[in-house]
Design goal:
- By secondary structure, the chain is of the alpha/beta class.
- The protein has 2 domains: 144 residues, Aspartate Aminotransferase, domain 1 (Alpha-Beta Complex), CATH 3.90.1150.10; 256 residues, Type I PLP-dependent aspartate aminotransferase-like (Major domain) (Aspartate Aminotransferase, domain 2, 3-Layer(aba) Sandwich).
- The protein is built from 14 helices and 17 strands.
- The chain has a 7-stranded mixed β-sheet with strand order 4-10-9-8-7-5-6, sandwiched between helices. A 4-stranded antiparallel β-sheet has the order 13-14-17-16, covered by helices on one side. Strands 1-2 form a two-stranded antiparallel ribbon.
- Strand 11 and strand 12 form a beta hairpin.
- Helix 2 packs antiparallel against helix 10 and helix 11 runs parallel beside helix 14.
- The longest helix has 20 residues.
- The protein is globular.
- The protein binds pyridoxal-5'-phosphate (PLP).
- The site of pyridoxal-5'-phosphate has 13 residues, from helix 4.
């Protein structure tokens, strides 16, 4: 296991005190062992308090008011946008659109950019490891417009097959969409390389950062991607808000996604004109307090340092994989630890993942069981479901031990 640099080490004991829920017992004497952060992370007091403070002292609707509270709320909302935009290296906060979540951000690109640029005979290239959020919006649009969707395959060790990907790019897809980190396999895709290849083939690139942005430094300028989507709730922030980063020229050309207040310049009985970025894509009252919480979450993880978070998680996943491999009957999916984030999907002999999750829950160990919104990937793996343990900045090696002990409970039940 790699030795952490002293200045790159998280003080997990101190971090855990920031998360009130981690002090909870699932039942008497059974502490919570939360290994489900890939579904949604827990929230530190800093985020919870930023939102309640905002509601208690500054809350009003944004943008439309002249009174003091409206101005303060607008300043808080726009300051959150600046933080989130800076966090992913966007040139300007105008290129950072607040959405409801990563899913809505992909739908925005599909229905706005896609509808304006795709037609019958075109191709869109995705990968076999996508979450339903980066498959279904394209399938819905393809059913309407008639374009073809291709899926770049994986290698035997569940990494993207770059050779096949390169060959599929030769077919001239107009858009290439892929996840930076698989929510099942944990695979971290080589985004800069894949983007360079896609641009070389003339495609626009959309990266699903739902699993990567919370866990590692992601910079849109360095990666040169055209669109990046992510959700606050997986990165210590609240539910109900996510983000779309877009290249300015593309966003400027794209038609609005939804109509209503905020996205217009002028409305007449028979027509309307559209306002500027980012409001053009933010119809209606936005998630204001959630934006404040999103900003506080970005502050929280930035203060810890993304390299330190990544380092901690790398140690966690190396350890988890080592220990899981020793449990007889466990089969792990995904590449070796150095190519993946802190996600371990596995099966255990013939035990159904739902039974595994239920037995682990008796020990307070929260894992996810099922297809993890990646049914086509599971079909490819020849499995109906897996059990998934996922780790974040607050997890400890003792919690990995609890997971392993729980798996021996499962083996006893199914012996
Ligand atoms: C890789 C990936 N993409 C997209 C999503 C969708 O995120 P949300 O449900 O927040 O829109 C998820 C959520 O699990 C995910 O893991």
């Amino acid at each position: 296991m790699a030795t952490p640099q002293t200045n790159n080490t998280l003080d997990v004991g101190a971090i855990r005190k920031d998360f009130p829920i981690l002090g909870r017992e699932i039942k008497e004497g059974v502490p919570l062992v939360y290994l489900d952060s890939a579904a949604s992370s827990q929230k530190p007091s800093q985020v919870i308090h930023a939102m309640s403070r905002f509601y208690e002292t500054e809350y009003a609707n944004v943008h439309r008011g002249i009174h003091t509270l409206a101005e303060e709320a607008t300043a808080a909302f726009e300051s959150a946008r600046e933080k989130v935009a800076r966090f992913v290296g966007a040139e300007s906060p105008r290129q950072l659109i607040f959405t409801r979540n990563a899913t809505e951000a992909i739908n925005l690109v599909a229905h706005s950019w896609g509808r304006a640029n795709l037609q019958d005979g075109d191709r869109v290239l995705l990968t076999q490891m996508e979450h339903h959020s980066n498959i279904v919006p394209w399938q819905m649009l393809a059913a309407e417009l008639g374009f073809t969707i291709d899926y770049a395959p994986m290698t035997e060790d569940h990494r993207i097959d770059l050779e096949r990907y390169g060959q599929m790019l030769e077919q001239g897809p107009k858009l290439v969409g892929f996840t930076q980190m698989s929510n099942v396999l944990g695979t971290i895709n080589p985004v800069a390389r894949m983007t360079e290849m896609a641009h070389g083939a003339g495609a626009v690139v959309l990266v699903d950062g739902a699993q990567s942005v919370p866990h590692m430094a992601v910079n849109v300028a360095e990666l040169d991607v055209d669109f990046l989507v992510f959700s606050a709730h997986k990165m210590c922030g609240p539910t109900g808000i996510g983000a779309l980063y877009g290249r300015r020229e593309l966003l400027e050309e794209m038609p609005p996604f939804m109509g209503g207040g905020e996205m217009i310049k002028r409305v007449q009985f028979d027509s309307f004109t559209v306002t500027e970025l980012p409001s053009k894509f933010e119809a209606g009252t936005p998630p204001i307090a959630q934006a404040v919480g999103f900003g506080a979450a970005v502050d929280y993880i930035s203060n810890l340092g993304m390299p330190a978070i990544r380092q901690h998680e790398q140690e966690m996943i190396e350890r988890a994989l080592d220990q899981l491999e020793e449990v007889p009957g466990v089969r792990i999916y995904g590449p070796a630890a150095e190519h993946k984030g802190a996600v371990a999907a596995f099966t255990l002999s013939d035990a159904h993942p739902h039974d595994i999750a239920e037995i682990l829950d008796r020990r307070g160990v929260a894992v996810r069981a099922g297809h993890h919104c990646a049914m086509p990937l599971h079909e490819k793996l020849g499995l109906p479901a897996t059990t998934r343990a996922s780790f974040y900045l607050y997890n400890t090696s003792d919690e990995i031990d609890s997971l392993i002990e729980g798996l021996y409970d499962v083996k006893k039940v199914f012996a």
